[in-house]
Design a protein that fits this description.
Blueprint (H helix, E strand, L loop, with lengths): L53 H8 L7 H14 L5 E5 L6 H16 L4 E6 L2 H17 L9 E2 L2 E3 L5 E6 L11 E5 L5 H4 L2 H15 L7 E5 L2 E4 L3 E6 L7 H8 L9 E4 L18 E2 L17 H20 L28 E9 L11 E9 L11 E9 L3 H17 L6 E5 L4 H8 L6 E4 L5 H13 L3 E3 L4 H6 L9 H18 L16
Parallel strand pairs: 1-9, 1-10, 2-5, 2-6, 6-9, 10-11, 12-15, 14-17, 15-16
Antiparallel strand pairs: 3-4, 4-5, 7-8, 12-13, 13-14
Length: about 525
């Protein structure tokens, strides 16, 4: 059973009069700041020891607030946090819904009202935005008649007479010497450039591990006689999804590690989906059920269905899926649609490939923050005897690894030997002529048959668009051991790209070199990207 820490008395009590801040002597104003923060007659509040609920607090602090259905669901969860019944909450929702107003301003103020001896912390992608949230929270806290300490009323660090309060800073900013019982991270990424940057994501993860989480109060404290009791220590993460490996993606992956945090997720797509189309979460995560029928808008008062359909047409399927449906990888796929994936082609006789190739996408180094190397085995399937040749490419195997130059050399030698033992010796090994590619070709050209450097013509996206028609036409099939590639393709160009790029190099090489009747040559012909 969670223990709830002592709560503050109801707002607007006469005994709070000595805690005035601004000191302007106005008759009948016990806080001496009438005309600045809109002091109201204490008689308007009931003289009760029961603390306000969050909904009551919002109604007092912001009478014009619209209590829409999604907001009521979120308010109920935030109430559980203030009551000590919930400690981990992730909220993902579309832009311009009002999430920051509710969580980072109104709820932050309510938490300090309920627990004036505790600290709440708010962080956002910039210190300026975090300070703006803190400023509004301070206003709502004061507007409901609650006092500030005379010696600390700064926007980014304000205190109550009980020495609790609020601290604010930008993500990746300092919190040294400060702790908090409620931590709110609101929009940690400035935009898609940051959210999709492995460097920025890695830096923020390091900040989470080395600064943010270690400033939180412990979840359990000593109650005496060797017993432990629950302590109020809560985290709220709220954002709009940009990338599948953003902060929420990283936190959910951590749930599969040794110390899961048991997050509760409120996932709010702009248009309700069928339950079977929603993301699958780790078993330690609980998910708030969606109250809507499939196809219903989230907040018709602000964004009716017709408006959402216009937004979808303007943004396109890729960004619509990420920003509005909270699915960074579209359920149908991006450049490569999930419906295009097919099982291996049927053959009556033993399968033969002419040719079979191993396509490699290499990287520069093997540090933890480097890209993966991608290796894809694929071949042009030969027809059964007496049958007409068709363009049918089968992908037999795909694997990604973090490898530097020595590791790449060792892996290619081992993989070539293992494939040969299985009767799958590649006729060509394609290595992109970039990164570690030239060094690999130089070191292995006498040890691996058919090792060929491939020039990188065009961008990864251009090569993907050139290969996509092959999948759409049903000319590419995937064996079970190619599952990592099958999972990566619909997410492209988001997330990891190494297997997709290796596959595109190989598929285009097969099509241009063999299917178009060019025959085997000593060097690869230029790839044509004008499909």
């Amino acid at each position: 059973m969670l223990t709830t820490l002592p709560t503050a008395p109801v707002a607007l009590r006469p005994q709070l009069q000595p805690a005035g801040v601004l000191g302007s002597p106005v008759h009948g104003d016990p806080w001496r700041d009438a005309g600045v923060l809109g002091w109201r007659d204490p008689a308007l509040s009931a003289a009760s020891s029961r603390p306000l609920t969050l909904r009551e607090f919002i109604a007092e602090a912001m009478p014009q607030y619209g209590f829409h259905r999604w907001a009521l669901v979120l308010i109920a969860l935030l109430q559980q946090i203030a009551d000590g019944e919930l400690s981990r909450l992730i909220v993902t929702c579309p832009p311009r819904l009002g999430k920051s107003q509710l969580i980072s301003k109104l709820f932050l103020a309510y938490f300090v009202y309920r627990h004036p001896h505790l600290f709440a912390a708010v962080a956002s992608y910039s210190g300026e935005l975090a300070y703006a949230h803190s400023r509004e929270a301070r206003h709502f806290y004061r507007a409901t008649g609650n006092p500030l300490s005379k010696d600390s009323t700064a926007v980014g660090n304000w205190l109550t007479p009980q020495r609790g309060g609020c601290i604010a800073a930008g993500v990746d900013g300092p919190f040294n010497g400060k702790g908090y019982s409620l931590g709110i991270i609101d929009d940690p990424y400035k935009g898609p450039r940051d959210a999709c940057s492995p460097t920025v994501r890695s830096r923020i993860v390091e900040w989470l591990k080395s600064v943010w989480f270690i400033r939180a109060e412990p979840a359990w404290i000593d109650a005496g006689a060797g017993a432990l009791q629950r302590n109020l220590s809560a985290q709220v993460i709220v954002l709009t999804r940009w990338d599948e490996e953003d902060m929420v993606g990283w936190l959910l992956k951590q749930e599969l590690e040794e110390a899961p945090q048991h997050w509760h997720v409120l996932d709010l797509p702009a248009i309700a989906e069928h339950p079977e189309d929603r993301p699958v979460y780790p078993p330690t995560v609980t998910v708030e059920p969606d109250w809507r029928l499939p196809g219903e808008p989230l907040c018709p008062e602000r964004f009716p269905l017709q408006e959402l359909q216009k937004i979808r047409a303007r943004t396109g399927n890729f960004w619509w899926s990420a920003l509005y449906q909270q699915r960074p990888a579209p359920s149908t796929g991006g450049i490569f649609q999930r419906s295009w994936h097919r099982a291996p082609f049927q053959r009556k006789h033993k399968r033969r490939y002419q040719p079979l190739i191993l396509s490699c996408d290499l990287t520069f180094k093997d540090e933890d923050d480097s890209c993966y190397c991608g290796f894809v085995l694929l071949g042009l399937l030969a027809p059964d005897p007496g049958q007409r040749q068709k363009l049918e490419i089968e992908v037999l195997w795909a694997v990604r690894k973090r490898l530097g130059l020595p590791g790449t050399i060792h892996f290619l030698l081992s993989a070539s030997a293992a494939l040969q033992q299985q009767g799958l010796r590649p006729d060509a090994v394609l290595v992109e002529d970039a990164a570690n590619g030239p060094a690999v070709v130089q070191m292995l050209k006498r040890k691996i048959r058919g090792l060929l450097p491939i020039p990188a013509r065009g961008s990864k996206e251009q090569r993907a668009h050139a290969v996509a028609p092959l999948l759409e036409a049903g000319q590419v099939a995937f064996h079970p051991r190619a599952e990592p590639l099958v999972e990566e393709l619909p997410r492209f160009p988001r997330g990891t790209k190494d297997l997709t790029d290796a596959f595109c190099h190989g598929a285009l090489w097969l099509e241009e070199r063999y299917w178009k009747g060019l025959g085997v040559q000593q060097a690869p012909v230029p790839m044509l990207l004008s499909r």
